[in-house]
Design a protein that fits this description.
304 residues; five-stranded parallel beta sheet; four-stranded parallel beta sheet; 11 helices; binds phosphoric acid mono(formamide)ester
Length: 304
């Protein structure tokens, strides 16, 4: 594999190997501190980010490498009209690997077609976010001890939430997976994911607006924020944004070993009173993002 654009670019065995390496890094980071000495990562972020960009940068620094890049389109020559293709060609002259986030679906794929170094999709519009999914898989593995035989509740903005789309694609390849999709009607999972991913793979799923009734069934609850930046109409955003809020009262209906995840940033969809519950895994999840990105950078650079 030369690039990571879609989580399905990785086989289940490759994901398992990345998880294994990430666990090894987490157990003894010092063993990896020289693995990418002399290598450079370019972070090309045309859209805001805290976790993804900073965890990529921390990952490369902790591997002994260096980082260059930009965190907003305005500070790059994209603001003068330079294309994604030309940007990718140019940056290939300066870096050994590229992580790109872009508001347009498919932009990292275009970049990969012109770059001469590996390109990682760090989130493209409302489409995909494969390194978040690797983070999520590592988290489920660490919290639940397995990636199979799980009932997973996905709650919130399932239409624009690209982390949800990538996670469904990834989990649909494991046995015994069932999804409960909890969203407002207007923010349902896109039809192509229901048909081409879940139905095509024989994955059982149900759609509901009844958060509390779904709760006792869940092994994993994956909360998402309503993606304000992808709405055309602010009134719709305001109407939908607080429809599902996880509170301690709702958690009273959940299993004792529920794993609560969120790709973050959180806005209002998980009450801060939930944060101290041992089932709240979302800050541990953010840390896992650094370990799995270290494993991914090593893999794409061919570092053993
Ligand atoms: N989870 C995630 O993608 O967060 P950022 O937008 O802060 O990178």
């Amino acid at each position: 594999m030369e690039n990571l654009i879609d989580i399905r670019d990785l086989s289940v065995d490759e994901i398992q190997e990345l998880v294994r390496v990430a666990l090894d890094i987490a157990a003894d980071p010092s063993r990896y501190s020289e693995k990418c000495r002399g290598k450079k990562l370019a972070t090309l972020f045309f859209e805001p980010s805290t976790r993804t960009r900073l965890s990529f940068e921390a990952a490369m620094y902790e591997l002994g490498g260096n980082v260059l890049g930009f965190s907003e389109a305005q500070s790059s020559s994209a603001s003068k009209g330079e294309s994604v293709s030309d940007t990718a060609r140019m940056v290939s002259c300066y870096a050994d690997i590229i992580a790109m986030r872009h508001p347009k679906e498919g932009a990292p794929l275009v970049a990969a077609s012109k770059a001469s170094v590996p390109v990682i999709n760090a989130g493209d519009g409302g489409h995909n976010h494969p390194t978040q999914t690797l983070t999520d898989l590592l988290t489920i593995w660490r919290e639940k001890g397995r990636l199979s035989d799980l009932t997973i509740g996905l709650c919130g903005d399932l239409k624009f939430g690209r982390t949800v789309h990538s996670l469904v694609a990834a989990m649909s390849r494991y046995p015994g997976i069932r999804f409960i999709l909890i969203s407002p009607e207007e923010l349902r999972v896109p039809g192509y994911i229901r048909k081409d991913v879940m139905t095509a793979n024989g994955i059982p799923f149900e759609e509901t607006t009844d958060f509390v009734s779904a709760m006792p069934q869940l092994d994993v609850l994956y909360m998402t924020r309503v993606q304000k930046e992808r709405f055309f109409n602010e009134a719709d955003y305001i109407r939908l944004k607080d429809m599902f809020i996880l509170t301690p009262e709702k958690l009273a209906y959940a299993k004792e070993d529920l794993c609560i995840m969120h790709p973050l940033p959180r806005v209002n969809e998980i009450a801060t009173a939930v944060d101290d519950d041992p089932r709240a895994a979302y800050f541990r999840q953010a840390l896992n993002g650094k370990y799995i990105r270290m494993a991914l950078i090593m893999k794409l650079l061919g570092v053993k």
